Amino acid sequence: MAKSDVTCFVLLSTVLFIANADDLTVTGKVFFDIKIAEKDVGRIVIALFANAAPKTVENFATLAAGTKGYGYEGTIFHRVIEGFMIQAGDFTNRDGSGSESIYGGMFADEKFQLKHSGPGWVSMANKGKDTNGSQFFITTVETPWLDDRHVVFGKVIEGMDVVRAIETVPTNSTDGPTSVCLIARSGTIPVDKPFALVE
Q1: Which of 79, 91, 116, 153 is catalytic?
Q2: Is 164 a catalytic residue?
Q3: Is residue 87 among the annotated active site residues?
Q4: Is 150 a catalytic residue?
Q5: pLDDT of 14
Q6: What tens digit of pLDDT does each residue of 160-169 get?
Q7: Does residue 146 have an active-site annotation?
Q8: The pTM is what?
Q9: Can you list the residues of the chain whose pLDDT is less than 70?
Q10: 107-110, Cβ contacts within 8 angstroms, sequence gap of 24 or more
Q11: In a 3-state reduction of DSSP, which class is residue 90?
Protein backbone atom coordinates (compact mmCIF):
# COMPACT_ATOMS: atom_id res chain seq x y z
CA MET A 1 0.00 0.00 0.00
CA ALA A 2 1.40 3.39 -0.99
CA LYS A 3 2.11 5.99 1.69
CA SER A 4 -0.61 8.26 0.29
CA ASP A 5 -3.12 5.40 0.49
CA VAL A 6 -2.20 4.74 4.12
CA THR A 7 -2.63 8.43 4.93
CA CYS A 8 -6.06 8.51 3.25
CA PHE A 9 -7.14 5.37 5.13
CA VAL A 10 -6.08 6.83 8.49
CA LEU A 11 -7.84 10.12 7.78
CA LEU A 12 -11.02 8.35 6.69
CA SER A 13 -10.98 6.15 9.80
CA THR A 14 -10.53 9.22 11.98
CA VAL A 15 -13.44 11.01 10.32
CA LEU A 16 -15.71 8.00 10.75
CA PHE A 17 -14.73 7.67 14.42
CA ILE A 18 -15.43 11.34 15.09
CA ALA A 19 -18.80 11.16 13.32
CA ASN A 20 -19.82 8.15 15.42
CA ALA A 21 -18.60 9.84 18.60
CA ASP A 22 -20.79 12.87 17.78
CA ASP A 23 -23.79 10.61 17.27
CA LEU A 24 -23.28 9.06 20.73
CA THR A 25 -23.01 12.38 22.51
CA VAL A 26 -25.56 12.41 25.34
CA THR A 27 -27.47 15.68 25.08
CA GLY A 28 -30.29 14.90 27.51
CA LYS A 29 -31.91 12.18 29.60
CA VAL A 30 -35.41 10.91 30.23
CA PHE A 31 -36.64 8.81 33.15
CA PHE A 32 -39.55 6.40 33.55
CA ASP A 33 -40.64 5.20 37.00
CA ILE A 34 -42.22 1.80 36.43
CA LYS A 35 -44.91 -0.18 38.22
CA ILE A 36 -45.76 -3.78 37.37
CA ALA A 37 -49.12 -4.98 38.73
CA GLU A 38 -49.20 -1.82 40.89
CA LYS A 39 -45.82 -2.63 42.47
CA ASP A 40 -42.91 -0.19 42.14
CA VAL A 41 -40.06 -1.94 40.34
CA GLY A 42 -37.64 0.93 39.71
CA ARG A 43 -36.54 3.61 37.30
CA ILE A 44 -35.36 3.45 33.70
CA VAL A 45 -33.02 6.27 32.62
CA ILE A 46 -32.51 6.81 28.90
CA ALA A 47 -29.66 8.82 27.37
CA LEU A 48 -30.71 10.83 24.32
CA PHE A 49 -28.63 11.56 21.20
CA ALA A 50 -29.94 14.78 19.67
CA ASN A 51 -26.93 15.05 17.36
CA ALA A 52 -28.07 11.85 15.66
CA ALA A 53 -31.82 12.53 15.56
CA PRO A 54 -32.76 16.02 16.80
CA LYS A 55 -36.42 16.01 15.81
CA THR A 56 -36.99 12.50 17.18
CA VAL A 57 -35.30 13.39 20.48
CA GLU A 58 -37.34 16.59 20.83
CA ASN A 59 -40.55 14.63 20.30
CA PHE A 60 -39.59 11.92 22.81
CA ALA A 61 -38.34 14.33 25.50
CA THR A 62 -41.39 16.57 25.19
CA LEU A 63 -43.75 13.60 25.55
CA ALA A 64 -41.74 12.38 28.55
CA ALA A 65 -41.99 15.81 30.17
CA GLY A 66 -45.70 16.16 29.38
CA THR A 67 -45.37 19.89 28.83
CA LYS A 68 -48.06 19.92 26.14
CA GLY A 69 -50.64 18.38 28.47
CA TYR A 70 -50.20 14.84 27.17
CA GLY A 71 -47.43 12.30 27.01
CA TYR A 72 -45.98 9.10 28.41
CA GLU A 73 -46.82 9.43 32.10
CA GLY A 74 -49.72 7.13 32.94
CA THR A 75 -49.31 5.00 29.80
CA ILE A 76 -48.31 1.35 29.57
CA PHE A 77 -45.95 -1.04 27.86
CA HIS A 78 -48.56 -2.64 25.63
CA ARG A 79 -46.38 -5.09 23.70
CA VAL A 80 -43.70 -7.35 25.18
CA ILE A 81 -41.73 -10.04 23.34
CA GLU A 82 -39.13 -11.81 25.46
CA GLY A 83 -35.82 -12.10 23.66
CA PHE A 84 -36.68 -9.16 21.40
CA MET A 85 -38.07 -5.91 22.80
CA ILE A 86 -40.63 -4.05 24.93
CA GLN A 87 -42.88 -1.42 23.32
CA ALA A 88 -44.78 1.58 24.72
CA GLY A 89 -45.80 5.14 23.95
CA ASP A 90 -49.45 4.93 22.88
CA PHE A 91 -50.91 7.73 25.01
CA THR A 92 -53.89 7.98 22.64
CA ASN A 93 -55.47 4.52 22.92
CA ARG A 94 -53.08 2.65 25.28
CA ASP A 95 -53.26 -0.50 23.14
CA GLY A 96 -50.75 0.07 20.33
CA SER A 97 -53.27 1.39 17.82
CA GLY A 98 -52.51 5.08 18.43
CA SER A 99 -49.35 7.04 17.73
CA GLU A 100 -49.25 10.83 17.51
CA SER A 101 -46.24 13.12 17.63
CA ILE A 102 -45.92 16.62 19.08
CA TYR A 103 -45.77 17.85 15.49
CA GLY A 104 -49.29 16.65 14.73
CA GLY A 105 -49.75 13.20 13.23
CA MET A 106 -46.64 11.41 11.94
CA PHE A 107 -43.19 12.75 11.08
CA ALA A 108 -40.43 11.63 8.75
CA ASP A 109 -37.52 9.33 9.53
CA GLU A 110 -34.23 10.98 10.40
CA LYS A 111 -30.79 9.40 10.03
CA PHE A 112 -30.37 5.65 10.45
CA GLN A 113 -26.76 5.98 11.57
CA LEU A 114 -27.23 4.48 15.04
CA LYS A 115 -27.90 0.75 15.02
CA HIS A 116 -29.82 -1.76 17.13
CA SER A 117 -26.51 -3.27 18.24
CA GLY A 118 -27.52 -4.89 21.52
CA PRO A 119 -29.82 -4.61 24.55
CA GLY A 120 -31.07 -1.23 25.73
CA TRP A 121 -31.27 0.74 22.49
CA VAL A 122 -34.34 2.98 22.21
CA SER A 123 -35.90 3.28 18.77
CA MET A 124 -39.07 4.57 17.14
CA ALA A 125 -41.86 2.11 16.39
CA ASN A 126 -43.53 2.75 13.07
CA LYS A 127 -45.88 1.43 10.41
CA GLY A 128 -43.43 1.89 7.57
CA LYS A 129 -41.35 4.69 6.11
CA ASP A 130 -41.88 8.17 7.62
CA THR A 131 -44.60 7.12 10.09
CA ASN A 132 -43.04 8.12 13.42
CA GLY A 133 -45.44 9.22 16.14
CA SER A 134 -45.22 8.56 19.88
CA GLN A 135 -44.58 4.82 20.09
CA PHE A 136 -41.09 3.52 20.83
CA PHE A 137 -39.41 0.29 21.81
CA ILE A 138 -36.42 -0.80 23.86
CA THR A 139 -34.37 -3.71 22.55
CA THR A 140 -33.46 -6.60 24.83
CA VAL A 141 -31.10 -8.23 22.32
CA GLU A 142 -29.23 -7.19 19.19
CA THR A 143 -31.79 -6.69 16.38
CA PRO A 144 -29.88 -5.88 13.16
CA TRP A 145 -32.90 -6.59 10.93
CA LEU A 146 -34.41 -3.36 12.26
CA ASP A 147 -31.44 -1.22 11.16
CA ASP A 148 -32.27 1.33 8.44
CA ARG A 149 -35.98 0.81 9.13
CA HIS A 150 -36.39 2.33 12.60
CA VAL A 151 -34.69 5.45 13.96
CA VAL A 152 -32.49 4.77 17.00
CA PHE A 153 -32.21 7.85 19.23
CA GLY A 154 -31.45 6.71 22.78
CA LYS A 155 -29.90 4.13 25.08
CA VAL A 156 -30.84 2.82 28.51
CA ILE A 157 -28.03 3.79 30.88
CA GLU A 158 -29.72 2.92 34.18
CA GLY A 159 -32.45 0.42 35.01
CA MET A 160 -31.82 -2.35 32.52
CA ASP A 161 -32.96 -4.67 35.30
CA VAL A 162 -36.35 -2.91 35.13
CA VAL A 163 -36.44 -3.47 31.37
CA ARG A 164 -35.73 -7.17 32.02
CA ALA A 165 -38.52 -7.30 34.59
CA ILE A 166 -40.98 -5.99 31.99
CA GLU A 167 -39.57 -8.34 29.37
CA THR A 168 -40.32 -11.41 31.50
CA VAL A 169 -43.92 -10.52 32.39
CA PRO A 170 -46.25 -13.25 31.00
CA THR A 171 -48.11 -12.21 27.86
CA ASN A 172 -51.28 -13.14 25.99
CA SER A 173 -51.65 -14.32 22.40
CA THR A 174 -51.21 -10.78 21.04
CA ASP A 175 -48.01 -10.09 23.05
CA GLY A 176 -49.83 -7.91 25.57
CA PRO A 177 -48.57 -8.25 29.15
CA THR A 178 -51.06 -9.98 31.46
CA SER A 179 -49.98 -7.62 34.27
CA VAL A 180 -50.12 -3.86 33.76
CA CYS A 181 -46.64 -2.42 33.13
CA LEU A 182 -47.21 1.24 33.89
CA ILE A 183 -45.08 4.34 33.36
CA ALA A 184 -46.16 5.83 36.67
CA ARG A 185 -43.95 8.93 36.34
CA SER A 186 -41.90 10.31 33.51
CA GLY A 187 -39.78 13.35 32.96
CA THR A 188 -36.52 14.80 31.73
CA ILE A 189 -33.14 15.02 33.48
CA PRO A 190 -31.03 18.02 32.42
CA VAL A 191 -27.53 17.43 31.10
CA ASP A 192 -25.42 20.49 31.89
CA LYS A 193 -22.60 19.47 29.60
CA PRO A 194 -23.05 16.93 26.78
CA PHE A 195 -20.80 13.90 27.10
CA ALA A 196 -19.84 10.90 25.00
CA LEU A 197 -21.46 7.59 25.91
CA VAL A 198 -18.93 4.89 26.66
CA GLU A 199 -20.45 1.50 25.94
Answers
A1: 79
A2: no
A3: yes
A4: yes
A5: 40
A6: 999 999 999 9
A7: yes
A8: 0.89
A9: 1-22, 199
A10: 107/55, 107/59, 107/132, 107/133, 108/132, 109/151, 110/52, 110/53, 110/54, 110/55, 110/56, 110/151, 110/153
A11: coil
